[in-house]
Amino acid sequence: MAETMDLGSVSRGFRAMFSMLSPNESSFEKVEDVPPYVQQATPFFVGLMVLELVLGTLKTGGSVVTISDGITSISAGMISRLPTLVMRGCELTAYMYVWDRFRLVELPWDSAWTWWFTFLGVDFCYYWVHRFAHEVSVLWASHQVHHSSEYYNLTTALRQSLTQQFTSWIFYMPLALVAPPAIFAVHIQLNLLYQFWIHTELINDLGPLEWIFNTPKHHRVHHGRNLYCIDKNYGGILIIWDRLFDTFALESDKVIYGLVYPIRTFEILRVQLHYYFYLWRKSKYYKKINNKLSTFFKGPSWKPGKPRLGDHSNNPKVTGKEVPHDPSWPLHLQVYVVVHFLLVLAVYHDMLSQLTILGMTGYILLTLTALGYIMDQRPTAAFLEMLRCVIMVAMLRFGYMKPLLPSLSVPTEVRLRIITDPTSSSAGSWMKMYDYDSMEKQSKFICVLPASL
Asked: Is residue 113 exposed (0-12), middle (13-18) or buried (19+ Cβ within 10 Å)?
């Protein structure tokens, strides 16, 4: 029986990745009964990314993902989920508040009609979440994170914003007047999971499905910085909304991915926050209050005298010969970054109490920032990484991370030794390599590149 249940769980988890669950198996009366589909999808994320890597290598003769870009994308995904570790998601919290106080009708939670209505409602609302995130600069400041990669692969799907969830909930509130929260909690997860597999270049035309569903072919256009790709194909699961509202474009010329003005960095906090600083600087150029406000609430390309969304014809020309940002860096640093990234990834999945979560959230942010500095080859990377390693050694030695270690057959003290010894060595190595005379001088481990926040 246990084996059958396990197989059933695997089947449901895999089908959830493609929003292929039936109403009977995914309708719940209470929000507390809704499975954490996104959390349970981690093995499928990993499996599909490995499969894409293998098939991509066989098909193209090269890798479809680089270490630097892949780690940056996964790091963004980790950061985007941190708020949900200490509180329920903003979308669901706000949704339940409106439902409890202002609902107009109470559709039956166990009706297939309610399930399908909510499916369409969530996808329709997501279209507008997504469209506004491109057409309103202050919302684009959060969403640009997802578009910052110059590659297009399954790790790109995980490159999510820390701040977008704090505004996206607004667009789902009309649905909260009629659709039960538990059914909404199902579909908000399934809608997100569906969008994972469409981030690949390995799948081409899917025939008649292209008319109704969002597919890799359609979503590649959305991620392009070619002129014909800008502000197109916003759909989540369905592409019909784009066809209805005239935001649809077919893939034609070779798609060049990334931001119109690439940021060319792997430092995760800079990826997350740089556009907010840009908007602030841009607004300071204007003296009129209406121009200052327009900087934040009109399109990213807007300037005084231009339409609401600006003039995209002034964007840098795309030639099709653009090369993604992938600076060369020593193999030993690549191994170092991967090892320490895997360590913090293990910590991320094993956080427990609220107090531990808050402390470890800070440590995770410090680690991902330090690894980004290394990948960017910044002069100050050695100092920051030395500091991070010292903090981790102290946390391990004083037992603050013992509750976070996975329960394996190996004794805890052995696991501590396995992690602590290389971390201590890392701290010592960075300490020896760092030039204390100036934080702006070149570390013997790090190549100097012009990089600044």
From this structure: exposed
Please give the single-letter amino acid code of residue 441: K
Average pLDDT over residues 99-116: 97
- pLDDT digits over 340-366, tens only? 888 787 777 665 445 466 667 777 888
Angstrom distance (rounded) from CA 322 to CA 28: 49
301: which strand partners? 310
Residue with tokens 């499928």: 44
Both structure tokens of 324 = 């993604």
Residue type, 388: R
Distance of alpha carbon 256 from alpha carbon 445, whole angstroms: 33
The amino acid sitting at 27 is S
Dihedral angle computed from the Cα positions of residues 385, 387, 388 and 390, in that order, rounded to the nearest 10 degrees: 120
The DSSP annotation for 169-198 comes to GGGGGGGGGTS-HHHHHHHHHHHHHHHHHT
Task: Report whether 146 contacts 160 (CB < 8 A).
Answer: yes
Q: Can you tell me whether residue 316 is helix, strand or coil?
A: coil
Give 294-320 pLDDT, tens digit per residue: 999 999 999 999 999 998 888 899 988
Whole-model pTM? 0.80
**Cα–Cα distances in Å, from 445 out to 242, 305, 378, 435, 453?**
49, 49, 10, 10, 21
Q: Taking the CB of residue 286, how many other CB atoms lie within 10 A of it?
A: 15
The full set of domain ranges for the chain reads 15-244, 331-433
For the stretch 138-196, pLDDT in tens is 999 999 999 999 999 999 999 999 999 999 999 999 999 999 999 999 999 999 999 99
The encoded tokens of residue 294 equal 């327009």
